[in-house]
Design brief:
The complex is a heterodimer of chains A (219) and B (558). Chain A has six helices and no strands. Chain A has 219 residues and is mainly alpha-helical. In chain A, α5 packs antiparallel against α6. In chain B, α5 packs antiparallel against α7. Chain B starts with a helix and ends with a helix. The chains are: A mainly alpha (219), B mainly alpha (558). At the A-B interface, α1 and α5 of A face α7, α8 and α9 of B. Chain A: Its main location: membrane.
C-alpha cells in the first residue's frame, strides 16, 4: 500500500510507526479489541434476560408479547440495510470514489436516524400501554408478576444502551463524513473508514442479538 | 564450557553502552517545558508521569481515610466518631484505594513508561488514546471525590445492592457515575497495551524474548478488556435503578440482589489479578537484576501469567459461599479457587530459585521484592483458608478477610509498586535516590505492614466482623496493636515521598544502567530521549541474559 498519494487512496504514516502496514494492523487489532469489550458490555444484559426467560417463562412471554414485534422487525431490516450502505462506503473508499463514498455514508447515517425515530415511537407506544413500570404515576400493566417487571426493565436498559451507541455512532459518522468530503482525505485516512465500518457493523450485530432475545424467543 | 566461562565474568555480555546522559534538550523531561506540553502530550513517558502524580495524590487521600478508620478502632465503643462517619471513612478508603490507586497503579505508570521501551518501540500504538485514558481517569475520579465533598458515601467500595440503590441516603449516585467513568480508562489502556505488544515489537523481539514485565501486562490487559465491561454493565444498572427505578437488583422492582454480586465479582475477582499480576511483573524484573542471575524457568513464569489471568475468571463465586448459592456451585468455585494457587506458586518458586545462589545485592528495590514475596506467600496461603468451604463459614466477612486481601493487595501491589519505583526511578528521572533512606523506608514498611495486618488475622479468627465501628472490649488490645502498626506504615510511606522528591533536584545524576540490569529499557539514556532510542536497540540473544546462568550448568561445570 502506498504511503501517500496526492489524490489517491492511502494512509499517511504516523511518526511512531515504522510502516503503514504496521499502522493498519494496529488500527484493526485495536478496533476488534474495543468491539469485544462492547460485546461484553451487552452480553451481561442479554445473559440476564435469557436466564430470566428460562426461570420465569410465562411472565417473560407475557411481557414480551407487549413489545412491538413489527417495529423491532422493521428496525432489524433498517439496520441491515445501513450495514450494506456502510459496506458500500468502504468499497468506494478502497476504489477512491470519494463522492460515492460520502453519499453512502450519509445514507448510513439516515438509516441510523430512521431506526432511532422508530425506536422512539415504540417507547411512546409502551408508555401508552402502561408498560413502563418505573413510572409511578402510570401503574404497570403486568404489576402482579415481578419477573415481567424485571424482564421489561432489562429490555429498557439494553435498548437504551443500544440507542446510545447508535446515537454516538451517527454523530461520529456525520463528523467523519464532513471531514471525508474534503479533498485529499482518502489519500491520508482511508483506514478510518474501514475501522469505523467495523464499529457500525457491531451496532448492527448487537441489535441482531437483542431482537430475538427480547422480542422473538417463545413468542 | 561457555556457560562456566560466563560465571567468571569473561563472556559477560557488555551492555549496549549508550551515552549515560544526553543533552538536556533531547531528553523527554526537558524537550519542552510548557504546561501545555505536559497536559497535551502524547509521549507515553510523560503520560506515565501524569498518572504517577495523580495516583500518588489518590494514595494520600486513601491513606488518610485508612488512618481515620484505624483511629476510630482504637476504642471498642465507637466513642471517637459516629458510626455514620466511620462508614463513610472506610468507604472512601476502599473506593479511592481500589479504583483510583491499586488498579491503575503499576499498569498506568510503569506499564505506560516501560512497555514501549522494553519492546523497542517509539511509543504505544495509540498515543492520543493514551492521553484520553488519563483524562477519562481524572474526570471520573474527581467526579467521585465530589460525592465525598458533598457529604460522603456509606455503602463500602462494593456498592452492594439494594443498600446502594434503595436504602443508603448518601451521595451514592455521583460516586457510581464517577467509578463508571473511571472504568473506561483501564479498558483503553489495556487495549493500547495489547495492540502495542502485538504490533510494535522491534525486529527480533519475539514473544519468548519479552521481559516477564511485558507478559504480565499482556495478561493484565486481557483482564482489563474482558472483565471491566461487565462491571460497567453492573454499575450502569445500579445507576438506572437508583436514579430512575429501572431496576434489576432490588426485589421491590422484581430484581435479584444476588445478581449484582455475580456481576460485581465477575469483574472484581479478576481485578485482584489486575492488581497482582503487574506487581509480579515488576518482581520478575527486580529479582534477576539483584541476583545477577537468569530468571529461573522463564517460560513457566510467562505461562503462569496467562494461567492466572485465565483461572481468575472462574472463581468469582467464592465471594458468595454464604449467600445462598447452590452447594454444587460453591463446591465448583471452591475447587477452582484452589487452582489459583498453582500458577501463583510457580511464580514464587521461580523467584526463590532465581535468588538461590545468586550474587545477591540487598539494595532498596530488592528489599521491597523480598518483602513482596513474603507478604504474597502469607496472603496467598490464607486465601486457601478462605476458599475452603467449611472454614469460610467461620471467617466469612471477618477481619481475617480484611487481613488476607490487604496482604495480597497492599503486600502484592504497593510493595511491588514501591520496589519498581526505586528500580526505575533513575530511568524515569535521570537521578539516583538516597540508598540509605530507601532501605530504612523499605524495612519500616515491611515491619509496619505486618504489625498492622497480622493481628487482624487473629481478630478475624476470633470472630470480629469487618465494617463494624464498635467491637467487644476483649478485641481492643489487638486493634490498638493494628493501629500502632498503621502509624509505622504511614512513616514508611512518608519517607519515599520526601527523599524521592528531594532527589529530583539534588540526587546524583544516574547512569544509563545503574543496576547492571538487562532489558532494552536500560539500553537507552537516563532519562530517555523523546523517541526512546537514539539508534535502534540491539535485541538480546536470550531474555534475562545475566552473568549467572541456570543452576544446572553451574553444578555441571562448577
Amino acid at each position: 500500500m502506498s504511503e501517500r498519494l496526492a489524490d489517491g487512496v492511502g494512509v499517511a504514516r504516523a511518526e511512531h510507526f515504522e510502516t503503514v502496514a504496521q499502522q493498519r494492523e494496529a488500527a484493526t487489532l485495536g478496533i476488534w479489541a474495543w468491539l469485544i469489550t462492547e460485546l461484553l458490555l451487552f452480553s451481561a444484559l442479554f445473559l440476564v434476560a435469557l436466564i430470566t426467560r428460562i426461570q420465569h417463562p410465562e411472565a417473560t412471554v407475557a411481557a414480551a408479547k407487549h413489545l412491538k414485534f413489527w417495529i423491532g422487525a422493521t428496525n432489524t431490516v433498517v439496520l441491515i440495510c445501513s450495514s450494506l450502505t456502510m459496506s458500500m462506503a468502504i468499497e468506494f473508499s478502497r476504489m477512491g470514489w470519494q463522492r460515492a463514498m460520502v453519499r453512502a455514508m450519509l445514507a448510513t447515517a439516515a438509516l441510523g436516524g430512521l431506526f432511532l425515530v422508530l425506536k422512539g415511537y415504540e417507547y411512546y407506544a409502551d408508555w401508552d400501554e402502561h408498560m413502563m413500570p418505573f413510572l409511578s404515576n402510570r401503574p404497570f400493566a403486568l404489576a402482579e408478576t415481578p419477573a415481567a417487571r424485571l424482564f421489561v426493565n432489562l429490555y429498557y436498559v439494553a435498548t437504551l444502551l443500544h440507542a446510545l451507541h447508535l446515537f454516538t455512532g451517527i454523530a461520529l459518522l456525520l463528523g467523519m463524513t464532513w471531514m471525508a468530503a474534503k479533498a485529499g482525505f482518502l489519500s491520508r485516512h482511508q483506514n478510518w473508514i474501514e475501522v469505523y465500518g467495523l464499529y457500525w457493523h457491531f451496532i448492527d450485530l448487537v441489535w441482531i442479538l437483542a431482537f430475538p432475545i427480547l422480542y422473538v424467543v417463545n413468542r | 564450557m561457555s556457560a562456566s566461562g560466563s560465571i567468571g565474568g569473561t563472556a559477560r555480555r557488555e551492555p549496549h553502552a549508550p551515552e549515560a546522559t544526553i543533552g538536556r534538550k533531547a531528553d523527554y523531561l526537558h524537550a519542552e517545558s510548557t504546561l501545555r506540553s505536559w497536559f497535551l502530550t502524547t509521549d507515553h513517558k510523560r503520560i506515565a508521569l501524569l498518572y504517577l502524580a495523580s495516583i500518588t495524590g489518590f494514595f494520600v487521600i486513601g491513606a488518610l481515610a485508612a488512618g481515620v478508620v484505624r483511629l476510630a478502632l482504637i476504642v471498642p465503643n465507637g466513642a471517637i466518631m459516629a458510626n455514620d462517619t466511620y462508614n463513610k471513612a472506610f468507604t472512601i478508603h476502599g473506593v479511592v484505594m481500589v479504583w483510583f490507586f491499586l488498579i491503575p497503579s503499576i499498569p498506568a505508570t510503569f506499564g505506560n513508561f516501560l512497555i514501549p521501551l522494553m519492546i523497542g518501540a517509539k511509543d504505544l500504538a495509540f498515543p492520543k488514546l493514551n492521553l484520553t485514558s488519563w483524562y477519562v481517569f481524572m474526570a471520573g475520579a474527581l467526579f467521585t471525590l465530589v460525592s465525598v465533598v458533598l457529604g460522603g458515601v456509606d455503602t463500602g467500595w462494593t456498592f452492594y445492592a439494594p443498600l446502594s440503590t434503595a436504602f443508603s441516603n448518601t451521595w451514592v449516585l455521583p460516586a457510581l457515575i464517577g467509578v463508571t467513568i473511571v472504568g473506561f480508562s483501564p479498558i483503553l489502556t489495556g487495549l493500547n497495551f495489547v495492540v502495542t505488544i502485538h504490533t510494535m515489537r522491534a525486529p527480533g523481539m519475539t514473544w519468548f524474548k519479552l521481559p516477564i514485565f511485558v507478559w504480565a501486562h499482556y495478561a493484565t490487559s486481557l483482564i482489563f478488556l474482558l472483565a471491566t465491561p461487565v462491571i460497567t454493565t453492573a454499575l450502569i444498572l445500579l445507576i438506572m435503578e437508583r436514579a430512575f427505578h429501572i431496576g434489576v437488583f432490588d426485589p421491590a422492582y422484581g430484581g435479584d440482589p444476588v445478581l449484582f454480586q455475580h456481576l460485581f465479582w465477575f469483574y472484581s475477582h479478576p481485578a485482584v489479578y489486575i492488581m497482582v499480576l503487574p506487581g509480579m511483573g515488576v518482581i520478575s524484573e527486580i529479582v534477576p537484576a539483584f541476583a545477577q542471575k537468569k530468571l529461573f524457568g522463564y517460560r513457566f513464569v510467562a505461562y503462569a501469567s496467562i494461567g492466572l489471568a485465565s483461572v481468575t475468571f472462574f472463581v468469582w463465586g467464592h465471594h458468595m459461599f454464604v449467600n445462598g448459592q447452590s452447594d454444587l456451585a460453591s463446591l465448583v468455585f471452591s475447587a477452582l479457587s484452589f487452582a489459583v494457587a498453582v500458577p501463583s506458586a510457580v511464580k514464587v518458586y521461580n523467584w526463590t530459585a532465581t535468588i538461590h545462589k545468586g550474587a545477591l545485592r540487598l539494595d532498596t528495590p530488592m528489599l521491597y521484592a523480598m518483602g513482596y514475596i513474603g507478604l504474597f506467600v502469607l496472603g496467598g496461603l490464607t486465601g486457601l483458608y478462605l476458599a475452603t468451604l467449611a472454614i469460610n463459614q467461620h471467617i466469612h466477612a471477618t477481619y481475617f478477610v480484611v487481613a488476607h486481601f490487604h496482604y495480597i493487595m497492599v503486600g502484592g501491589t504497593v510493595l511491588a509498586f514501591l520496589g519498581g519505583l526505586h528500580f526505575w526511578w533513575p530511568k524515569f528521572t535521570g537521578r539516583m535516590y538516597s540508598e540509605p533512606w530507601g532501605r530504612v523506608s523499605a524495612l519500616l514498611i515491611f515491619l509496619g505492614f505486618n504489625v498492622t495486618f497480622f493481628p487482624q488475622f487473629i481478630l478475624g479468627y476470633l470472630g470480629m466482623p469487618r465494617r463494624y465501628a464498635t467491637y467487644p472490649a476483649e478485641f481492643q488490645l489487638l486493634n490498638v496493636l493494628s493501629s500502632a502498626g498503621a502509624t509505622i506504615l504511614a512513616a514508611g510511606y512518608l519517607f519515599p515521598m520526601l527523599y524521592l522528591v528531594y532527589s529530583l533536584w539534588f540526587g546524583r545524576k544516574a547512569p544509563a544502567n545503574p543496576w547492571n540490569a538487562k532489558g532494552l529499557e536500560w539500553e537507552t539514556s537516563s532519562p530517555p530521549p523523546t523517541h526512546n532510542f537514539l539508534s535502534p536497540p540491539e535485541v538480546p540473544r536470550i531474555p534475562y541474559d545475566y552473568p549467572i546462568q541456570a543452576q544446572e550448568s553451574r553444578d555441571q561445570h562448577g
